[in-house]
Amino acid sequence: MIGNREVNLQLFKQRVEHHKRKFRRFITRLGKKQPKGLPALTNRLEKEVWHEVDCLTCAGCCKTMTPTFTEKDIKRIAAHLGETPEQFKQTRLRRERGGDRDWLNKKDPCQFLDLKTNKCSIYEVRPADCAGFPHLQKTMKDYGHVHKQNIECCPASFKMIEKMMMHLNHHL
């Protein structure tokens, strides 16, 4: 482990406010033109990020966002909780307005987050969206809108974009 991995949430929020417009523009540029070697750089930087960020000191994603629950997620989690998929949907989820009308949590923070430990009570069967979060390996072309959202609530996403900017700014 390298250094202190604890997230200082107050400092993180200040840094987001100061840098988010610049980061959002950078993500847009990466989505339009991917520099050579970006996948290899992403792999390397992601490893660095996880040596520097401890999600359990933050849990910003679980406190402020909701995953999209697929039908497969709903069946798996409902079975784990001893509920039918319909009971699970009725008591814990809501339909998104407009668009695809995805299944989302009824409330924030996530009902499965233990606020004392920042741990997920259904971690072993969590939604696929949670398991993949913060989607650092997803391309800027396909997931740029997600990365733009994630830099505002996820220190790992913020740090990843910050590192990419340091390595790539002379290319863009």
Task: Give the arrangement of secondary structure elements.
Layout: H1 9-32, H2 38-52, H3 60-64, H4 71-81, H5 85-92, E1 93-95, E2 103-105, E3 113-114, E4 119-120, H6 128-132, H7 140-150, H8 155-168
Could you explain the architecture of this structure?
By secondary structure, the protein is mainly alpha-helical. Among the domains are: 63-132, no CATH class; 136-172, no CATH class. It has eight helices and four strands; from the N terminus they run αααααββββααα. The protein has helices at 9-32, 38-52, 60-64, 71-81, 85-92, 128-132, 140-150, 155-168; strands at 93-95, 103-105, 113-114, 119-120. The strands form two sheets. A two-stranded antiparallel ribbon has the order 1-2. A two-stranded antiparallel ribbon has the order 3-4. Strand 3 and strand 4 (119-120) form a beta hairpin. Helix 1 runs antiparallel to helix 7 and helix 2 (38-52) crosses helix 8 (155-168). The radius of gyration is 17 Å and the shape is globular.
